[in-house]
Fold these 2 entries.
Entry 1:
Amino acid sequence: MGKTQKITKEMTIGEVMKKYPKTAFVFTDYDLHCVSCPMAVGENVETIEEAAKLHRIDLKKFLSDLNKVVK
């Protein structure tokens, strides 16, 4: 990915959902149904990186897919 990513591994799920609501389908495609959970879109402290580790998701691909939506 040549350009700077808008979504980074340090961002929380809540941050991403609030700023880029269209990413919801990417989360669900990765079986991260947390996007409908009040904890995830509220003051959630779980980062994209932590979610990827917890759910055994390829972080690089996950970030790439999220950032494709916000281009």
Entry 2:
Amino acid sequence: MNFAQLGLGLTQLRACESLGYTEPTPIQRQAIPVVLEGRDLIGCAETGTGKTAAFLLPILQNLEPTRRPGVRVLILAPTRELANQIQENYRALNRIKDNRAVTLIGGANMRTQIAELRRRPTVVIATPGRLLDLIDRRALSLSAVEVLVLDEADRMLDMGFLPAIRRVLSLVPKKRQTLLFSATMSPEIERLARSTLTEPQLIEVNRRGQTAGLVEQTAYQIAAEAKTALLLDLLEREQFDRVLVFARTRRTTERLSHILAARDHKVNRIHSDRSQPQREAALRGFRDGYTRVLVATDIAARGLDVDSVSHVINYDVPAAPEDYVHRIGRTGRAGNKGQAITIVTPVDESSLRAIEKLIGQKVKRVVPQGFGGARPKESVPVNKSSQVRGGVHTRSFRPRRASR
């Protein structure tokens, strides 16, 4: 199947051709016709599956025939990085000059954003907090919104944005098209979908918790005090091209970055305390190859669009098993093989087992010599019923009834 068979017009087909898009991804094959029809949609897909183009291409086509004043499309994203990535994709796909887009994110100059809004954009891409700040300043109105996109909805809920989302929903017209994209279908997402969408089509690309097939996963079992020594050993002994190191806290991210810089590694870091220009510079340097190692908190697990990450190293085991899937999904992209290494101390064993249960497979264990590692006494068996092959499933969405 090609993009023309999905119902896209000549303008969108030319945009696809200019970007080298030849064959639609599974989420694009299923979502584009639904969005073109103006129906509500729930798309369950990981970052990196082409979902941004899956909603931008049909939205742009539906905007094309008419010109109306006001913000007609609102796209909400959980992080600045993801919002900027969507803006880049919009800029590449949009062929109509009148359909301008503005990005509203925290950490950027608010006066500049207000000036951009005065130029009457058609599309707003925003993080929830900054969007509401500008609404409170009466810098924009959502009364003309025709399409609302909630991207990475599960991450927005994890970050505590549910009250902000509810307020946004109260400000947009009830008669609209709503597209909700999420990597997981938790009860919270179901409740949000039930209160937000009208008879949505549910599209699932692969099952919950499925990891990329091109990623080799390994767990290094060591003593807690040897974590930094092992990280240095791996980076200095192995031939790693471009490495993304995940830590749980901003403090650990800063500490590791300074240690690696002192050892002459080309390193940078990204976390929520860094300014927007600093975060953009760190991502740009990593994407362009000037930085070999990027140390990050989970803020970079979603929205980081770099195809050539050779290794992901989990310095800290993530708090939530789902975050493991998002972290290692930064490697093994665009048909390239990748490696994911997780440093596991004795206190992390239960978290690793929860990850194995989620992904439906055991992670290869390695006990490196000289780092105080020890094998666990027993490993919890993986739930075989969760081992479902990846694929695309489309059905009407019928949420579970709320218990009384």
